[in-house]
Specification:
The complex is a heterodimer of chains A (579) and B (75). With 579 residues, chain A is mainly α. Helices cover 71% and strands 0% of the residues of chain A. The radius of gyration of chain A is 23 Å and the shape is globular. The chains are: A mainly alpha (579), B mainly alpha (75).
Chain lengths: 579, 75
């Protein structure tokens, strides 16, 4: 039967992985109509600053929890980690399990009460209450700057993906996606972003879940897939006899696994510093939980997020492994793929698997899942930037009383400016593609020391304002210095990552660990040399000072600790299943 | 859905979109027979995932649309 053609303005020159049909485009267009429609509807419900920046602090645990997870599912998450699974095997799952679950539960059970009861608008806002303006300023400016830059870099990456996967024009992808995100965030602020993130979360699952299901049917289940990975002649050169399907048993040495990392790097670097840093102090995700309607919801939201996070490898990691088993071609690194027209990179594995299994309509849904992932990540960056700019930079420096209407106006303009800077950053990345690597690294510099500063501030009443400031500053500076050292002298990798065989990811783990340790040492030393804040100023901000509010007396099955215990048991069982 | 507000639930919006998607995917699957008009090969197309998934989405979308439809007055 005749098929409606794809509009010409979407087409760029060159081949693409997928060829969409009219019905696929209809599915994609309906998604854009839905997100703009939701933004328009919510505009009339966004009346106060609390509505715009904190979604009225009225979100249920489910909404806050799913939004908390969806904000992280963007930013190349789906395609990047599917590619990492093809490249490194099942080890990529560590970023979803040990690299997320303990930290998310810790946020819910231990840290959320402090964030929630001090009623701050942001993580830099907490630092201001705990340490003072110095720490807040460092955190706010770094975070604001890096957030919009990251948003732009990711926007460019998304446009590049759409060009490679669908043959869409680069400029069209950048402008249509950023204008759509800008429109619904300007209209409804965080409320609109959260609503859309929940929608995007559902679409991501619906669009991606068929690939692992049909893939496992094709390979004959998990054991069939493992057998086919080891017998697929195409990937033997890539695998080189290493074990791609066990999570922990290959990590006793640096050379026994595809990532070149020891279990200490995964447990302490990823599982402790990077994971806790990201999930408990990165305002992009924490902002979603702060919007919860009460303390119990705020504690439950990260637990609900953790429960779903455990199963995301099903739609992200499994397609990468299935790619190793069934794809008739070998995928290559991005650099090699760029040099050889017709070659596909690791990052293309998810689109290739979508195109392999999904028919008309379903393929449109799969592409919508990819677009939804990118847009939820972008909206997360933009709303976090808008809040930090308005409360922690603009309002903090003006030092005058401001009306709600004025703050919303500033927030809306901050959103527009943030989007425009993001677009500028996307075009900058287009000119200098190596900037993507640098900015990714720059962002990671900040997370580990920030976690050190926040956790000492929250758990140790002796930590002083000067210690918070200098710990954060020296931690960040030392992380940058280590990165520069390895860039200038690659042999320094043996000191930073404890092995000359370490890959980039292993280097990131250990660099984060050392910068956190430096932040911790400086914080402790400076604290003992300077005067702490009086305890009366630390009530509700530090563990052990004042009473931590608890949720009302509830039956066992309604308590956050009960559900956290279930999540942690499932977490251990999953790890043991693929040990 | 939103605590104490007269606001349409997000689950209603999701239900409507999933319902529409389900009808489109199921309907297109019936019309096209599960084959791509461009001749793109689809592995295991005989499983008719378009009908299964389209049907599931239609039912799930219809349920959520009905369950969370605006009632006209806040609870």
């Amino acid at each position: 039967m005749p098929c409606p053609t794809v509009p010409g303005f979407l087409l760029a020159t060159g081949g693409s992985i997928m060829s969409l049909e009219g019905v696929d485009l209809l599915v994609i267009v309906l998604y854009f109509v839905a997100v703009i429609g939701i933004g328009l509807y919510l505009k009339s419900h966004t009346k106060t600053g609390e509505d715009f920046f904190m979604a009225g602090r009225e979100m249920t645990a489910w909404i806050a929890g799913l939004s908390f997870l969806a904000a992280n599912l963007g930013s190349l998450e789906l395609m990047g980690w599917a590619g990492a699974a093809y490249q490194y095997g099942i080890l990529a799952t560590h970023w979803y399990w040990v690299g997320a679950i303990p930290a998310m539960l810790f946020l819910g059970l231990v840290m959320m009460p402090f964030y929630y009861i001090c009623k701050t608008h942001s993580v830099p806002g907490y630092l201001q209450l705990r340490y003072g303006e110095g720490s807040r300023t460092v955190a706010a400016i770094s975070f604001g700057f890096m957030t919009v830059l990251m948003s732009g870099i990711n926007m460019f990456a998304m446009a590049k993906v759409m060009q490679v996967v669908l043959g869409w024009d680069l400029h069209f992808s950048i402008w249509i996606s950023s204008l759509t995100v800008g429109a619904y965030v300007v209209l409804g602020g965080l409320l609109s972003a959260i609503f859309n993130e929940v929608l995007q979360f559902v679409l991501i699952w619906l669009g991606a879940m068929l690939v692992p299901i049909v893939g496992l049917i094709e390979t004959g289940g998990w054991s069939g897939m493992v057998a086919r990975i080891h017998s697929n002649p195409v990937v033997q050169q890539h695998i080189q006899g290493q074990d791609f399907t066990h999570l922990w048993s290959t990590m006793g040495t640096f050379t026994g696994n595809p990532m070149g990392i020891h279990w200490t790097g995964i447990v302490f670097g990823l599982g402790w510093v990077i994971s806790f840093g990201y999930w408990t102090t990165d305002f992009l995700v924490v902002q979603r939980v702060m919007s919860a309607k009460d303390l119990r919801s705020a504690k439950m939201a990260p637990i609900i997020g953790a429960a779903f996070k455990m199963f995301v490898p099903f739609i992200v990691i499994l397609p990468g492994l299935l790619g190793l088993a069934v794809l008739p071609e070998l995928l290559h690194s991005e650099k090699l793929a760029l040099l050889h027209p017709g070659w596909h990179s690791y990052n293309d594995v998810l689109p290739l698997m979508l195109a392999r299994y999904l028919g008309p309509g379903l393929l449109g849904l799969g592409v919508t899942a990819l677009i939804a992932g990118f847009m939820s990540g972008m909206a997360g960056n933009v709303t976090a930037f808008s809040t930090v700019w308005t409360y922690d930079i603009y309002k903090a420096f003006r030092k005058v009383e401001m009306s709600d209407a004025h703050l919303i106006k500033v927030g809306r303009w901050a959103t527009i400016v943030g989007i425009l800077i993001s677009i500028g950053a996307a075009y900058l990345a287009m000119q200098f593609q190596s900037i993507m690597d640098y900015v990714q690294a720059l962002f990671s510099f900040f997370i580990a020391p920030l976690f050190g500063t926040v956790i000492f501030g929250m758990m140790w009443k002796r930590a002083t304002p000067a210690a918070g400031f200098w710990g954060l500053l020296t931690g960040t500076a030392s992380s940058v210095a280590m990165w520069v050292w390895v860039k200038m002298d690659p042999s320094a990798l043996r000191y930073i990552a404890l092995s000359p065989n370490a890959k980039d990811m292993a280097e990131n783990m250990y660099r984060a660990l050392w910068s956190w340790c430096i932040c911790a040492i400086v914080t402790i030393v400076v604290s003992y040399c300077t005067k702490p804040k009086p305890e009366s100023e630390l009530v509700g901000l530090v563990y052990g000072i004042g009473e931590i509010p608890h949720e009302a007396v509830l039956p066992l099955w309604k308590r956050p600790i009960f559900w956290a215990a279930i999540v942690i048991v499932v977490f251990f069982v999953l790890n043991l299943m693929v040990w | 859905m939103i605590h104490g507000r007269n606001m349409i639930s997000i689950w209603f919006f999701i239900g409507v979109l999933v319902l529409v998607y389900g009808i489109i995917i199921f309907g297109w699957g019936l019309v096209s027979g599960g084959h791509s008009a461009t001749g793109r090969p689809i592995t295991l197309s005989e499983l008719r995932t378009d009908l299964w998934m389209g049907g599931f989405m239609t039912l799930a979308g219809a349920f959520y649309t009905w369950r969370f439809a605006p009632k006209g007055k806040a609870k």
